[in-house]
Amino acid sequence: MRIEGFELRRVGMPLVSPFRTSFGTETERDILLVRAVTDTADGWGECVAGADPLYSSEYVDGSADVMRRFLIPALERVGTAAEVGEALKPFKGHRMAKGALEMAVLDAELRAAGRSLASELGSTRDTVPCGVSVGIMDSVPELLDAVGRYLAEGYVRIKLKIEPGWDVDVVRAVREAFGDDILLQVDANTAYTVADADHLARLDEFGLLLIEQPLDEEDVLGHADLAKVVRTPICLDESITSADAAVAAIRLAATSVINIKPGRVGGYLEARRVHDVAVAAGVPVWCGGMVESGIGRAANIALASLPGFTLPGDVSASARFYETDITEPFVMRDGHLDVPAGPGIGVAPIPDILDELTTSREWISV
Ligand code: OSB
Ligand code: MG
Fold first, then answer.
1. Which residues pair with 269 in a beta bridge?
2. Range 118-338: architecture per CATH
């Protein structure tokens, strides 16, 4: 395969409702899509960087910049998706940008070969269960209303975003309203410090599946210390930037469950390696989300169908975030989504909708 170049497309996608986390509130996603143009097929990738460097150091303008200045020119002699990671290795960081380029090349390669991403990654299921990430709200009644609606729609697992002042009482209210049987977990997005250990241990009485990333992304040792005080399993998200990072965090007992986000670790091939090291260590994994469009969502569903993904992921229907998706929307049935079976990621943008939502486009030759 010869890569001719990439089209960078920015799309503005309004959210159905504001999504508030401990690091900020989003009302619209500004998504960078990349289309790899090759001598065989074209392929699509999605960069999950946010508009601002609040979840990680990456941000979407920075991702576009590093792609055009450094990453895309380095792909000149690359002929397979497996070679992308190696070619981009000299450049530090920027995993979300690297992951998007690799995804586009992988999609092109698989489309040309007529193989699905799911089968390429080692999928063992045709459907995946859907979890939903529920943002911080202005009041508890408002939150209970939202959780009640998601449960009625069929979501099989609820994740509550938490922060200091919106944690123990909120979890208690959800347990009181919906009972002890619903699968429930929380995500702090680094909002606490080890000094909050006793406070976080108050969550233990609620039978949560896990507490996601309570401490700073660089504080892996702090999570190991916290895990000795808190009985609820600790699950790292932000801290797990590679398979090596996963091995280290597991060995330190800083994490007993892992959230795998392909963008955060530099792509779907590294995401599979994180899955593999976790499975080898007996650590369950689940697929995280970054409020993706149908492009990233399709690929996440493929990843979530690997055997080590034994917990429901932040894998929700398109309608959770978007009234109009840029692909055919992913619709949940019985709390599950079908794993795309077509070549590559199995979906592509609908041209009219894509054009309508596009805010800028740029062509960069390799
Ligand atoms: O920490 O999991 C997170 C969204 C943006 C950035 C970070 C996170 C999230 C979510 C949403 O929780 C997950 C989704 O896409 O459903
Ligand atoms: Mg998280």
1. none
2. Alpha-Beta Barrel (3.20)
